[in-house]
Backbone:
């Protein structure tokens, strides 16, 4: 702990244990201190009597423990390109990147959405993976590693734990889904966090809307909501230390007490308490006057709305059932209750998309702009990436040239009506798709990408070196009979349901 950190729980000092563990975040310190999942995992293990745990980031200069004393080294793996930083951190501490080359080094493991969805492109580098919600299984894994100094024995025992995948002992693995009864919150506040001194708390996990492209929705089903009383208790805890609160969840507005929570915070502000509050995102059809009034009272000037597609036809196909009337009503409520602007998120290259859908989006934007003078309207777009465990996992991307033409069309047309548009890199999204649907044959490829510097050119040259047809992973439409690399992960809903959803949506 540094002197700019405030710990919100009672740490156990001077533990009588020589078992040392590092919990690593593949990014800089400021980002790590705004990563709720990473910090909560650290906290749960830090409260364990038998473990001395230390946080490590990519910019950590000096460590409390020497690497030769570390027995277990865990990584948070949230984004596809995190492997580049992970490899760099392993080499920084003189640890061989491939697990087969390690002998006396610590066991290396990873958890997080990337490897919970599909660990196969990374299986040569980690001794084991946590698949799904890791709050409880992390402690079981730590105990096994602590009580078994022989690596092979530890890995064999780990492979028998539900929710742990050990590549050396391959078998079916059930994805862990935790029943949420306690609220996950920021356990350590920091002045140097990306979101400075912000108390982030999880209101819900999962999303019942099930947009057909969305990994965050399907990987975290079912939607689980924290009990109201627990949320109130957590808000009060956070406000003892800071006036900045952030509510997190893929579908927080679906919480049965979301309006009550907003009212609780609004009443505190009205009574004179200074509170800054932000929310991760709002669903268009869940915006109410009371919710927006709370946000503006808490200092939020702008918000984001995900509409994904410009035409109702395409929104239905992706299972985003929003009408234009609902979108315009949301903008009206936002403006009338004090917000200064809205950013709309969309996606290009969705299955079955045509230029008619893009023109519908421009028409929608034009109408929003015309009817809402002096209201800031902007758009952000990414391009479709097929994700495991979703109904669209069998759908390939459009080729990059076609997507770049669409991106150019949207930027040009929106610019004409005075609306700015940010569009993610089509080229990088392509490689994200390759990794997303990758298999074990990509392990040497990604290591080569790292050794060549990790830029776009490194991906191309590494693919050429190993004669890998990357279009097969990114662009190919897969048959429903194809065995997918992640099929060994047992997840609800299962593959048969996803096939039915794919048929239902794409035949609309």
Residues:
């Amino acid at each position: 702990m540094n002197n700019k950190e405030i710990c919100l729980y009672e740490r156990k000092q001077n533990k009588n244990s020589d078992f040392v563990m590092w919990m690593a975040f593949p990014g800089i310190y400021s980002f790590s201190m705004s990563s709720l999942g990473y910090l909560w995992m650290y906290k749960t293990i830090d409260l364990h009597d038998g473990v001395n745990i230390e946080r490590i980031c990519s910019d950590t200069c000096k460590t409390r423990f020497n690497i030769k004393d570390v027995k277990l080294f865990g990584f948070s793996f949230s984004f596809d390109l995190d492997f580049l930083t992970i490899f760099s951190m392993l080499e920084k501490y003189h640890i061989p990147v491939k697990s087969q080359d390690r002998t006396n080094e610590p066991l290396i493991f990873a958890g997080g959405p990337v490897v919970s969805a599909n660990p196969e492109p990374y299986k040569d580098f980690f001794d084991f993976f946590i698949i799904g919600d890791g709050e409880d299984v992390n402690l079981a894994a730590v105990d096994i590693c602590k009580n078994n100094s022989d690596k092979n024995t530890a890995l064999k025992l780990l492979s028998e734990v539900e929710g742990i995948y050990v590549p050396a002992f391959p078998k079916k693995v059930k994805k862990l889904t935790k029943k949420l009864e306690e609220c996950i919150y920021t356990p350590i506040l920091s002045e140097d966090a990306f979101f400075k001194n912000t108390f982030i708390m999880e209101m819900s996990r999962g999303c019942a809307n099930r947009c057909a492209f969305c990994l965050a929705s399907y990987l975290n089903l079912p939607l689980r909501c924290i009990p109201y009383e627990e949320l109130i208790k957590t808000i009060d805890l956070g406000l003892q230390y800071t006036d900045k609160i952030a509510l997190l969840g893929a579908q927080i507005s679906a919480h049965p007490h979301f309006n009550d929570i907003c009212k609780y915070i609004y009443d505190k502000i009205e009574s004179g308490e200074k509170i800054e509050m932000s929310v991760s995102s709002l669903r268009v059809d869940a915006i109410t006057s009371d919710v927006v009034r709370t946000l503006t009272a808490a200092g939020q000037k702008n918000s984001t709305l995900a509409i994904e597609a410009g035409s109702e036809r395409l929104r239905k196909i992706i299972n985003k059932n929003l009408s234009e009337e609902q979108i315009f009503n949301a903008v009206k409520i936002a403006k009338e209750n004090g917000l200064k602007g809205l950013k709309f998120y969309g996606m290009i290259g969705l299955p079955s998309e045509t230029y008619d859908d893009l023109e519908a989006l421009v028409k929608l934007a034009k109408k929003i702009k015309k009817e809402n003078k002096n209201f800031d309207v902007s758009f952000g777009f990414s391009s479709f990436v097929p994700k495991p465990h979703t109904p669209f996992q069998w759908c390939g991307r459009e080729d990059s040239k076609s997507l770049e033409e669409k991106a150019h069309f949207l930027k040009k047309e929106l610019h004409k009506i005075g609306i700015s548009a940010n569009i993610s890199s089509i080229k990088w999204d392509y490689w994200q798709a390759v990794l997303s649907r990758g298999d074990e044959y990509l392990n040497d490829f990604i290591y080569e990408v790292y050794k060549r510097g990790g830029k776009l050119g490194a991906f191309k040259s590494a693919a050429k070196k190993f004669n890998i047809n990357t279009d097969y992973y990114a662009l190919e439409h897969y048959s429903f009979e194809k065995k997918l690399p992640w099929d060994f992960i047992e997840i609800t809903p299962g593959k048969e349901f996803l096939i039915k959803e794919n048929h239902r949506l794409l035949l609309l």
Q: What stands out?
A: The chain has a mean pLDDT of 93. The longest helix spans residues 355-371. The longest strand covers residues 341-348. The chain has 19 helices and 19 strands.
